[in-house]
Amino acid sequence: SALGAGWTLVGMGRALSMVAGPAVVAGALRRRRWAVTAGLLVALPPVVDWWRRRPPLDPVRWSVASIADDMAHGAGVWLGCLAEGSFGPLVPKLRLGPADGTDRPG
After folding, report:
1. What pLDDT sits at residue 15?
2. CA-based angle 88:64:38, to the nearest 5?
3. Burial class (CB in 10 A: 0-12, 13-18, 19+), 18
4. Distance (Å, rounded) from C-alpha 76 to C-alpha 46?
5. CA-closest candidate to residue 78, choices 29, 16, 22, 13
6. For the chain, how far is it from start to end, CA to CA, in angstroms?
7. Is the pLDDT of residue 47 over 70?
8. What's the pLDDT at 105?
9. CB 16 within 8 A of CB 42
């Protein structure tokens, strides 16, 4: 559905800003098309969050703060992985079935 595709784009944008922040910046500096696409994907999650929460900040400041927070989180994860020599935290966990875990046997 269109709603599902929209939430997929929001998730991709969040992943780009959190986990792939340095690669996104490097790619954006090299290719204009990549910069536009990545910029739209990275900007989408904070705009959706702002729309849903309606915080006291305007959408631009909210988005800048949200993206900075995501990139700081991602940098910390990367630094921790490098320090520990383990990249397990960067590997996504795939689940089949409902996200709420109701498919688990009792």
Report:
1. 85
2. 60
3. buried
4. 20
5. 22
6. 31
7. yes
8. 52
9. yes
What one-character-per-residue DSSP string does the chain give? -HHHHHHHHHHHHHHHHHTSHHHHHHHHHH-HHHHHHHHHHHHHHHHHHHHHH--SS-HHHHHHHHHHHHHHHHHHHHHHHHHHT--GGGSPPP--S-TTSTTS--
Our measurement of the distance from residue 75's CA atom to the centroid of its chain's CA atoms, rounded to an integer in Å, reads: 13
For 62-82, b/e burial (b = at least 16 CB within 10 A) is: bbeebbeebbeebeebbeeee
Does 9 score more than 80 pLDDT?
A: yes
Residue type, position 66, single letter: S
